[in-house]
Structures are given as C-alpha cells and as structure tokens.
Amino acid sequence: MSAAAVTSPDLHEALHRLLAERWTCRQFLPEPVPRDTIEQVLALAQRTPSWCNTQPWHVIVTEGAATDRMRTRLLEHLRTNPGQPDFPFPTQYTGVYQERRRECGKQLYTSLGIERGDHQGTGRQMLRNFELFGAPHVAIITTEADLGVYGAIDCGLYLNSFLLAAQSLGLAAAPQAALAGYSGFLRDHFGLPDSRRVVVGVSFGHPDTAHPANGFRTTRANTDSAVTWHST
C-alpha cells in the first residue's frame, strides 16, 4: 500500500491502537532484542518534535553484559547512597493524583499477592525497578543542562515516541523515574559530562506475559476531567 492510499481514519486507528494497547511491563524475558530492531525504535523516536528543533535528547542503550554490569553496580550503589535526581521529584500527591497513584499501586500489589502492610513484600518489588525488571536492555535519556525544563519536556516527548515505537514493533517497555533518581551514579557509570541531565530510564525487551506483574492495566480518566472548554 502506498503512502497516498493510507487515509486519515487508518492513521487515527493505528495511533489509537498503539496508545490503547501500550502498557508498562514489569517483568521481561531474558532474550535480547536484535540490534536492528532497536535501531528501528530509535529511528522512529528521532522524528520527535522539539523546541526550535533542538533535539536535546541523547540516549544511552545497553545490551548484553553492559546491562548486567549496570544492574549489578546500581544495586550495590543504592544500598549505601541516597538518591539524587537531577530534576526534583513530586513533593507530594494529593486529591485525585493520590487516588490514581494508589489505584495503580493496589493493582500491582494485588496481582503479586502482596497484602497491605507487607513492607518486606513492597520493598522487594521496589527493588525490581533497579533490577530493571529482568530486562535485557535499558535506555537512559538525557538532556543538556542549559536547556532547562524545556529540554526535559522535549525529552518527555521523545520518551513517548520511544514507547510507542517499541509497542509498534512488538516490544514492551517500562519508563522509570526510579532510575533517574540516581542520576549521579548514571553519570559516573556511563562517563557522561556534567552538563548532561538524566531525565528518565526505560527498561525494554520482550514481555513475560505469564508473569502476574503484567496481568493488570491502569485506567485513564475521561477527557472531561482533563479539559476545560471556552467558547465565548
């Protein structure tokens, strides 16, 4: 089918499917993704728009022994070092934001059989973030410090493109602020210059669809709760 034969409804439906079916994977299979498939994801994500076309993102992608080495060193690091994110984490969650956060957490812990008050169980699951949920690959997305918050916003757009590109190729991914919480470690581990700021990490690979951590899907609020119309 030629590009001219693809109608707007076809494109709308394709985008709708990608957005509706994308989910955060919390357990991966160990098999690596072929390099050419990862390069297809990166090529699609590179089409992301940015302010003045600055394209501030730079992405580190690990594979093979490099993923295992980062995973091992990060787990060792966090045992004795506090997190130091480049961008401040939320100061608190209130109202509907707290409700949505709790709903997501409840779905995850229920799927894993972790009961309320089981601090050991929740702690073990929290550590899975730093084990990359068993993923064979991780992408670390950074921006230039001088570009400030808008460089980070552009990287957020890039992140979404990356996630949808992975979904379109049958891969799964987990965007992780938890990894960005140890930006100093990542800068040191990967030899990043001080001018780079870590925005987010993404574990990715093939999903373990039989694992209970992957057995739920989060909800979305309707547009009425997110949009205010002004007509006059």
Automatic annotation (TrEMBL):
- Which InterPro entries has this protein been placed in? Nitroreductase (IPR029479), Nitroreductase-like (IPR000415), Nitroreductase/BluB (IPR050627)
What are the entry keywords?
A: Flavoprotein, FMN, Oxidoreductase
Q: Which SUPFAM superfamilies match?
A: FMN-dependent nitroreductase-like
Q: Is NAD given among the entry's keywords?
A: no
Residues forming the Nitroreductase domain are 20-206
> Which PANTHER family does this one have?
IODOTYROSINE DEIODINASE 1 (PTHR23026:SF90), NADPH NITROREDUCTASE (PTHR23026)
What name does UniProt use for this protein? Nitroreductase
Tell me the lineage of the source organism.
Answer: Bacteria, Bacillati, Actinomycetota, Actinomycetes, Pseudonocardiales
